[in-house]
Amino acid sequence: MPAVLLFVPNSGLLSWYTCKEQPMYVTINLVKGVAAEPTVADLRRLLDELARTMRLVEKSEVGCCGVTLSQCHVLLEVARAGTASPGDAAGSLGLDLSTVSRVADGLVRRGLLKRETDPRDRRRCLLSPTEAGRELVERIERGMSAYVERILNLIPPDRHRTVLEGLGLLVEAAKKVEEGCCP
């Protein structure tokens, strides 16, 4: 069964947008197939399965909106910010500036983003979504929300908060780890 996270390849980022008003500690042993005392192997197995599932979803869902996964991430990040420099978007996404600049160039050519000189610093450019870009963002957001809702409907309602809190804890812990698997 698929789960919904935004996964930025090669960055180590898993993003889940949750309400962090009531943080709570949750054990992983609530997941079917995990030992009573979760182990590193249990977590690795579940993360691997989640990453594989998400790659399949990313290929089928994002591609159908007419943009690549990288374009989707950059477009959504710029749209969320309203206006962002390529450097700001790169920092938020955990990607190299050159990668974001290249992806943004493609989105500008397609008329989904516009690039303008920053009026406060003429050496810097700012990206913002065009009307077509905002429409595509709305379409992507509606599709992903419907997808998340279908997944959430398959989880017992009394476990919804547990799932969100557990994922929130996992994301926060992952952000604190400085090195990847190959230090």
Report on this model:
This protein has helices spanning 40-62, 69-81, 86-93, 97-109, 131-153, 160-176, and strands at 6-8, 13-15, 113-118, 121-129. The chain is mainly α and 183 residues long. Helix 3 packs across helix 4.
The name of the CATH architecture is: Orthogonal Bundle
Order of helices and strands: EEHHHHEEHH
Mean model confidence by pLDDT: 78
Instruction: Indicate the CATH class.
Output: Mainly Alpha
Structural class designation: mainly alpha
How many distinct folded domains?
1
At CATH level 3, the topology is Arc Repressor Mutant, subunit A
DSSP helix fraction:
40-55%
- CATH H-level superfamily: Winged helix-like DNA-binding domain superfamily/Winged helix DNA-binding domain
Distance between the termini: 32 Å
Radius of gyration: 18 Å
Q: Helical element count?
A: 6
Low-confidence stretches: 1-35
Biggest β-sheet strands, sense, barrel? 2 strands, antiparallel
What's the count of strands?
4
Indicate the proportion of strand residues: 5-15%
The shape, in one word, is: globular
Strand order of the largest sheet: 1-2
Detail the topology: elements first, then pairings.
Blueprint: E1 6-8, E2 13-15, H1 40-62, H2 69-81, H3 86-93, H4 97-109, E3 113-118, E4 121-129, H5 131-153, H6 160-176
Antiparallel strand pairs: 1-2, 3-4
Helix pairs in contact: 2-3, 2-4, 2-5, 3-4
